[in-house]
Design a protein that fits this description.
Two copies of one chain form a homodimer. By secondary structure, the first copy, chain A, is α/β, with parallel strands linked by helices. Chain A has eleven helices and twelve strands. In chain A, the strands form two sheets. Chain A has a six-stranded parallel sheet, sandwiched between helices. Chain A is elongated, with a radius of gyration of 24 Å. At the A-B interface, helix 2, helix 3, strand 2, helix 4 and helix 9 of A face helix 2, helix 3, strand 2, helix 4 and helix 9 of B. Chain A binds a DNA duplex (16 and 16 nucleotides) through helix 2.
DNA sequence: ATGAAAGCGCTAACAT
DNA sequence: ATGTTAGCGCTTTCAT
C-alpha cells in the first residue's frame, strides 16, 4: 500500500516503512505484481526499421503520450526482416505487455490477428483486417497523388516511380502513383522500377532507370531513403537535379531537410501518428471501445530544391536564374 | 519440461501435450517463470539518442550477438535527456532484466554504480568508475588526434573544434583535440566553440565561428550530425567546402557516406562495439569474471571530400582540378 | 516416469 | 487500522 501511494496506513507507520525501503534499497518486484494483477502497464513497440529516421518522430510521439498516460514503453525492431519481427512481437507477448504498437510491420495479417487475441494492437502505416486491432495510417494514396500532382504542375509528364519493396505503405504508394498518373491522363507515361525502402534500394532502382533508352523527367521515390539513393545514382551518371530530372521523396524525414539534400518530399506527421496510436491502445485497454478504428491522417508536400520544370520547358533559362521553391529547411517530420 | 525441450517424458505423452498446447494456444507465462527462476533472459538497452544514426550499427551488433547467446533484447531511449534516461533505466531494473547496456548515457556515475548493484552493466562510449560495470569505448583521444592530424597533413594550422555538449564522448574528444593541437605545436591556434551532438548544435556552433574576425581554415566537429549542421551554416554564409574551409566529423555514420554530404569522418565501429558489450554482459551474468574490464577499440579516419588544403596553399589551383580524396562512399559505420 | 507439494513476491479478500 | 490467508503460473524438490 505504501509503495503504491495508497491510504489505509497511519502517517507515522508510513514514514517508518519508507525509511526502511530507502535503507534496504528495496525495489518492489514488478514481475510478481504483474503476475497477480494480470497486467504489466508496459506497452511494446515494434519498429520495422530503426535506421529510417522517419521513425524518430514516431518514437517521440509514442513516448510522450505513453508517459502522459502512465505507461512504460519498450522498443524492439525486426531490422526489416519478417522473421525477426515475429520474434520481437513474440517477445512482447511473452512479456505480457498490455498493448502493442507495430510500426510498418511486414508480418502477415494472420499473425497480427492471432496476436490480437492476446493483447490490443495498433498498427502504424498499414491497414489491418481483423476486428481486434486498430490502425493509424497516413493517406498514402493521397500522398502519392500530391507527389505526382506537384510534378505535373511543373509540366512533367514522364514521371517514373521507384517502388519501395514489400512494405505495406510501399504497395499503397505504388497504387496511388498509378491512380494519379491515370487521373492526369498520363497512363501512357507510367513507368515503375523496383526498389526498396533503403538508400541502396533507391540507388539500384535509379540504375535500372538509367538503362532505359529515354529517361523520365521526374522520379517519385517511395520514401526519402530511396529518393536519396536514387539521387546518388542519377548524379553519379552525370545528371543534374532538378535541371535534368526532378526527384520527390516521401516521409519528409530530417534527411530530406538537410541543406545538402534539400529534397522535396511528402510529409506524414510521425509524431502525431505515434500519439494517436497510444490513444487507441489506451481505449482498448480500458475497454472503452470494442469496434476497430482506422485513423487516416492527411499528408502534405514540402517543396524543396530537387524539383523544377522539365528540361524542355526551361530552354534559355540559365541555371542561376531558374526558379527554386525552397521552404522550411529544418522542418522535419516532427 | 515439454515446453523447455527437456527429457524425462515419454515420447507419446510429449506428443499429446504438444498437440494440446497447439490447440489451446497455450503460451507459458514468462512472468511466472522469471519470478521463480530469478532471471528473465532479457537484456535492456538504453540508447541515448535513437535519432543519431551511429546507434543503428550499435543496435544491430547488440541484437545479433544477443540472439546468438539466447538473450532477448529490449530497447529504450532517454531522448537525450538525463531524467528520461533514468526513468528508462529504472524501468529495466523494475523488469529485472539480466543485464543492461547503456549507450552513451548522460546519467551520473553514481546512478550507474547504484544500478550496478542490481544487475551487470556495460556502458558504451563512456568510462565507468565502479567495479561492477564494464565499458566499451572507442579511443576518442586517438580519434580526435586522427582528425587534427589529417587537417595538419593538408597544411592546416587554424583548426577549430565545435564541441559536443555534455555527452561523455564529447568531453574526451575535446580533450583529444586540445592534446593533438599542442602535440602539433598549434596551441596558439586552439579555438573551441560550444556545440551539441545534433545538427542544430553544429549549426549554432558554426554561426559562432562566423562571427569571429578571422575564420579558421578547418573545423573538426564532435560528431557527424554536428558537422553537417556546421556545413549548413558555413555554406549558407557563402563559404565553399573544402576550398574555403575543411570539415571533419566523427562517427562515420551512414549520413557521412551520403554522396551529397560525403563528409570526412572518424570511424568508430558501432557494430563491433555492440557485440562486445553483449559479450561482457554475458561474462558477468555467467559469473566468469568479477573484475571490471574496459575495452577500447581503435578508431580510423575515412577521408571523403569535405577536407582539402587550406585556401592559402592552393593559389592558382582551379576548383575543378583541386585534389579530392574520396573513398568508400557507402562505407558506413557498420 | 509421474505426482504432489512448496514457494518465488506480490495483491486482494477477508478477518480481527 | 492492522494481520492473515489464498493464489497468480510457474520451477524445484521430494515421494511415489
Amino acid at each position: 500500500m505504501v509503495t503504491r501511494g495508497e491510504d489505509g496506513v497511519s502517517a507515522e507507520k508510513r514514514e517508518v516503512i519508507l525509511k526502511a525501503i530507502e535503507e534496504l534499497n528495496y525495489r518492489p518486484n514488478v514481475l510478481a505484481r504483474s503476475l497477480v494483477e494480470r497486467r504489466t502497464r508496459i506497452l511494446g513497440v515494434m519498429i520495422s526499421d530503426l535506421r529510417n529516421p522517419f521513425f524518430g518522430g514516431v518514437v517521440s510521439g509514442i513516448q510522450g503520450r505513453a508517459a502522459e498516460l502512465g505507461y512504460r514503453v519498450l522498443f524492439n525492431t525486426g531490422d526489416r526482416q519478417r522473421e525477426l519481427e515475429e520474434e520481437a512481437i513474440e517477445s512482447f507477448l511473452d512479456l505480457s505487455v498490455d498493448g502493442l504498437v507495430l510500426a510498418s510491420p511486414r508480418v502477415d495479417d494472420e499473425f497480427i490477428a492471432r496476436a490480437g487475441h492476446s493483447v490490443p494492437i495498433v498498427v502504424l502505416n498499414r491497414n489491418t483486417i481483423d476486428d481486434l486491432s486498430d490502425s493509424v495510417t497516413n493517406d498514402n494514396i493521397a500522398g502519392a497523388r500530391l507527389a505526382v500532382e506537384h510534378c505535373v504542375s511543373f509540366g512533367h509528364e514522364r514521371i517514373a516511380f521507384i517502388s519501395g519493396g514489400d512494405s505495406a505503405a510501399a504497395q499503397v504508394r505504388r497504387e496511388g502513383y498509378l491512380r494519379a498518373m491515370r487521373e492526369f491522363d498520363l497512363a501512357d507515361d507510367i513507368l515503375i522500377v523496383e526498389g526498396v525502402h533503403t538508400e541502396e534500394g533507391g540507388f539500384r532502382g535509379a540504375r535500372e532507370l538509367l538503362k532505359m533508352k529515354s529517361l523520365p523527367t521526374a522520379v517519385f521515390a517511395s520514401n526519402d531513403l530511396c529518393a536519396i539513393g536514387a539521387m546518388n545514382a542519377l548524379e553519379e551518371a552525370g545528371l543534374t537535379i532538378p535541371d535534368d530530372l526532378s526527384v520527390v521523396g516521401y516521409d519528409n524525414t530530417t534527411l530530406a531537410a538537410l541543406r545538402h539534400i534539400d529534397l522535396t518530399s511528402v510529409d506524414q506527421p510521425g509524431n502525431v501518428m505515434g500519439r494517436s496510436a497510444i490513444d487507441r491502445i489506451a481505449e482498448r485497454i480500458n475497454g472503452e471501445r470494442l469496434t476497430p478504428r482506422h485513423d487516416v491522417v492527411a499528408p502534405s508536400i514540402v517543396v524543396r530544391s530537387t524539383t523544377g520544370p522539365p528540361p524542355d520547358q526551361r530552354k534559355g533559362v540559365t541555371p542561376s536564374t531558374k526558379p527554386i521553391e525552397n521552404t522550411s529547411h529544418l522542418n522535419g517530420s516532427e
